[in-house]
Amino acid sequence: MTWLITGGAGYIGAHVVRAMTAAGERAVVYDDLSTGVAERVPDGVPLVVGSTLDAERLARTLADHAVTGVVHLAAKKQVGESVERPLHYYRENVEGLRVLLDAVTAAQVPAFVFSSSAAVYGMPDVDLVSEETPCAPLSPYGETKLAGEWLVRATGRATGLATASLRYFNVAGAAGPELADTGVFNLVPMVFEKLTEDAPPRVFGDDYPTPDGTCVRDYIHVVDLAEAHVAAARVLRSSPGRDLTLNIGRGEGVSVREMIDRINAVTGHDRPPAVVPRRPGDPARVVASADRAAAELGWKARLDVQDMITSAWEGWVRLHPEAVRT
């Protein structure tokens, strides 16, 4: 099969492209390069620069490359920005998805993997979040991901399109320094940034009902996440009309304070965190039950938090050599 990977020049997308090609699948990248980096696209993989709102270019790309499956990662994903610009997020994430699905069904592409998020759950009051946990997103970003799942599922039911919505938990790490996350929106790069500035990392609240008072999260290595996409793509290829919704996590919680301690140890720093007020809407604990992904895909995360921090730090140092302590 030939897989069109939207957002394939982004941090996660570039890992998915490499995992797909390493597994022997053909890939085509479609990216508007608003946050993606063209140099992340491997040699020999076609790159089409375009928006998912451009119906004509999408249709032409699907036809020109004889696309037989789509992995849709292109989206806006900053929670805070989504609160400030909800119309922009709904346009890019929901309308862009609708236009893409219209092109996919018109071209009779049989398989579609959708990049969703644990943000669809909001503030779940459970030890382990399963796919049956009620969804109550707290931001327009989370809302667009949940609406995207509905749109993907409804399209599959109406047309026979095989679909999978993968709900990512907290993604970190890199397959190599050149594929590192260049954004500073997640905990690991946010801590790296503070350490590079010789400033204390921030902890947003230490009075949560958790063992050390800080929020607990489930971290997943981006390499494992990319391999989950390959597994989902192959299941859809062999199961026409299939409809899957799956958590992609490790099923293990790590607190923010513990994560900062581990980052200090890996990077050679010794910066205790500064506690600042809670952020509105931060749930105390969000940890995945990944049993369904194991059962449906035969997939399980292999890499641990140490692997995530070490590989992410190598990428950070490549971009910020001043971060190394001498």
Automatic annotation (TrEMBL):
Pfam families in the record? Epimerase (PF01370)
The EC number(s) given in the record are 5.1.3.2
- UniProt key word Coiled coil: no
Q: In this protein, which residues make up the domain named NAD-dependent epimerase/dehydratase?
A: 3-249
Check the record and name the SUPFAM superfamilies matching this protein: NAD(P)-binding Rossmann-fold domains (SSF51735)
- Which top EC class applies here? isomerase
Q: Does the keyword ATP-binding apply?
A: no
Pathway membership: Carbohydrate metabolism; galactose metabolism
Keyword set for this entry? Answer: Carbohydrate metabolism, Isomerase, NAD
Which cofactors, if any, are listed as required? NAD(+)
Judging by the UniProt lineage, the source's domain of life is Bacteria
Catalytic reactions of this protein: UDP-alpha-D-glucose = UDP-alpha-D-galactose
Q: Which family does it belong to?
A: Belongs to the NAD(P)-dependent epimerase/dehydratase family.
The protein, known as: UDP-glucose 4-epimerase
Q: What is the lineage of its organism?
A: Bacteria, Bacillati, Actinomycetota, Actinomycetes, Kitasatosporales
Gene field = galE_4
